[in-house]
């Protein structure tokens, strides 16, 4: 295989497609590498087109960005050396400021290929809930069951919408090293349902798995990261809007973005949009989504998709420090960044800093870093179990090169 061009023969394609399973993807090996850029060949997919022409991005090369150093599992390396290291798993990387591409590299994929966002997609789901809050259709202090009949008679019924947004539902759907190794966990059962794979001798629907989730703690007590929690927000948006989630996102967001290519929202076997993470696009279009959260949103969109109120709720929505640290994932993010200055998480974003910067990461090290005050976005794709690209994000943002 020509790694840089992401080329696969017909024989390789057939072999790799036949091996796609949840366990194989969790290995982050050759199967995952193929799947990340070929998901639409393996899963049903909603193809969301934009009627707008691609929003042009200028070129203003800043090669010093590639000289920024960080401590990684591979040693102390410049960003340039890390991106091209054979063990980094890096596939695409871009820094955009004020609509100008300052740095861009594709060490492991074609620039025109669509790639998995993984959990970088979670803010898509959060954004649709923000729209419904601003419409007055959802009161975030009310319980999920007040709006979503399918979960009214479950333990989700009195989980506040705000607690679902903040990943603190008090439900047994947390996604961590333990639950990902437990075939009976809600997290793994959800993934199996998404891939049409059996659990306990039968294929469950994603809704059945969510209905089976049970209360494990007090909602709002601590940060409990879990993709099933985001999928509840997807079903909530559909129940309140009366639209399929993909159509809702097309109408309210993507149709206003000048994207280079379609946004691919991959679906469960019964047609549920997997907006917790099984979404893919070109790298520059992931960056354009990030630009919607910056003052330069009008460089890529014909309307303000992310309101000032939404951005303020995210930037000021962190809870106290103990909330972030008492859960499993707060300390994980501190270690991942080699930085403990973030305030915490909020509203489907993993980390918020005092300067208002936002980060969302995803499985196999996908990343979206947004700096509204600098009008800048960093976006990248990888296929690796080691989340090390994060080590460069705050050094890049605070280097002065984006000011």
- In the predicted model, the low-confidence regions spanning at least 5 consecutive residues are none
Radius of gyration: 20 Å
Across the major sheet, the strand order is: 2-6-5-14-13-12-11-10
Helix-strand pattern, N to C?
HHHEEEEHEEEHHHHHHHEEHHHHEEEEEH
Distance between the termini: 40 Å
The biggest sheet, with number of strands, parallel, antiparallel or mixed sense and barrel status, is: 8 strands, mixed
Strand fraction equals 15-25%
**What's the number of extended β-strand segments?**
14
Structural class: alpha+beta
Number of helices: 16
What does this molecule look like?
It is a single chain. The protein is an alpha+beta fold. It has helices spanning 10-18, 22-27, 30-36, 79-83, 122-135, 161-165, 177-180, 186-194, 206-212, 227-241, 245-252, 283-291, 308-315, 321-326, 329-337, 393-397, and strands at residues 45-48, 58-59, 69-72, 75-78, 90-97, 100-105, 115-116, 263-266, 279-281, 344-346, 349-352, 358-362, 366-371, 376-382. It has an eight-stranded mixed beta sheet.
Structural descriptors:
single chain; 403 residues; alpha+beta; 8-stranded mixed sheet; 16 helices; 14 strands; globular
Describe the structure in brief.
The chain has helices spanning 10-18, 22-27, 30-36, 79-83, 122-135, 161-165, 177-180, 186-194, 206-212, 227-241, 245-252, 283-291, 308-315, 321-326, 329-337, 393-397; strands at residues 45-48, 58-59, 69-72, 75-78, 90-97, 100-105, 115-116, 263-266, 279-281, 344-346, 349-352, 358-362, 366-371, 376-382.
